[in-house]
Amino acid sequence: MPKFHYRGRTGAGQIREGTVEAVSVSAAADEVFDRGITPIEVRPAAAGGGSLDAFIRQLSERAVTLDELVTFTRQFRALLRAGVPVVRALRGLGQNTANARLGRTLEEVAQGLESGQTLFDAMSRHPKTFPRLLLAMIRVGEESGQLEESLERMAASLDQERTTRERIKAALRYPTFVMIAIIAALVVINLFVIPPFADLFDGMGTDLPAMTALLIGFSEGFVEYWQWLFGGALVVGLGVRASIGTDEGRLRWDYLKLRLPGVGSIMRRALLARFARTFSMAVRSGVPLLQAMDSVAEATDNAHIARGIRDLRTGIERGEGLYQVAERSGLFTPLVLQMLAVGEETGQVADMMDQVAEFYEREVEEDLKKLSSYIEPFVIGFIGVLVLILALGIFMPMWQMGAAAM
């Protein structure tokens, strides 16, 4: 019997990996479910490492962009709505796409469907192509029998994410250019400007002001150890990236992102809007509440928020109300809690969550338009402080020379 490698989460949100024997990927996923683990990835054990040719091919292929994902999702929904079989639709989209990786991936997904896998199982074997939010929405759509609606909502969500990224890039473009210019200026100043002044001040034979001594000391250290400084920065950057790749590192990183001044609040409201929209769709589709929690947690695409949502299961399994466990979690804003309470009392949780999503989506859109105006004062203030330090460090000894000469 074939062996399949699985990776999934327990009810407490812990990652588990292992191997099971089953006749198909779908059967392997059922076996993992029976063990109390929600599978994230199930794949044939023999395909774990992959060949060298496949590895080289993947490196040479262009990554799938967000625009291409939006196009694929909309076209896939249109074909399904027209009555085209899923396998035929996937193969047609794969043959017509200009992205080689996406075309190859869709062909492999179609082959997986023909071998008896579900669409979610087949697509989840390609996490580098399909984001977790898309996989979560596919899963909700399959479980509820409303795949077309899931794809429609997914296309709208991806389109909104594309707009959000473009606005964030536009808002950060000016501060990024300024910071690059500042770093370049600091390098030039420390290598070519301050050393001649240091020689001049040494010839004066007088005590230097503390600010000047600090600048000269920093310049001398930079000139002597600049290779180590850049090397250390590179090692730290790679170390942080590797840490974020682990489960615990990603959990800490996602938590810190929500605490960033200004930007963190926008991210939090955007995630709450995504949670509300996905939860509403799952409730409308009749997905069991505990099962919906897992799908919604994956859809948030934030490890800290996802763990908190999964923790809600414990209280719900004890028979507590959704509002009670949500209030105790500390994840949700008063608006979300109030809407949950009203939704539980009236039996209209889905409608209330849709209103929460619409409210926060409008807020996030308005804040993104103003993001550059929030950042610019900090950048200008930083430049001002830097210029003041340089001016005082260089000109204070000259002022002392002038005062002594008088």
Automatic annotation (TrEMBL):
Q: What is its main location?
A: membrane
Q: Name a biological process GO annotation.
A: protein secretion by the type II secretion system
Per the record, GO CC terms?
A: plasma membrane
Membrane topology term: Multi-pass membrane protein
The record's subcellular locations are: Cell inner membrane
Pfam families documented for this protein: T2SSF
Q: What InterPro entries does the annotation carry?
A: GspF/PilC, T2SS_GspF_dom, T2SS_GspF_sf
What does the UniProt keyword field contain?
Answer: Cell inner membrane, Cell membrane, Membrane, Transmembrane, Transmembrane helix
Report TM segments.
Answer: 172-194, 225-244, 378-399
Which residue numbers delimit the Type II secretion system protein GspF domain? Answer: 72-195, 275-397
Organism superkingdom: Bacteria
UniProt record similarity statement? Belongs to the GSP F family.
Q: What is this protein called?
A: Type II secretion system protein
Organism of origin is Halorhodospira halophila (strain DSM 244 / SL1) (Ectothiorhodospira halophila (strain DSM 244 / SL1))
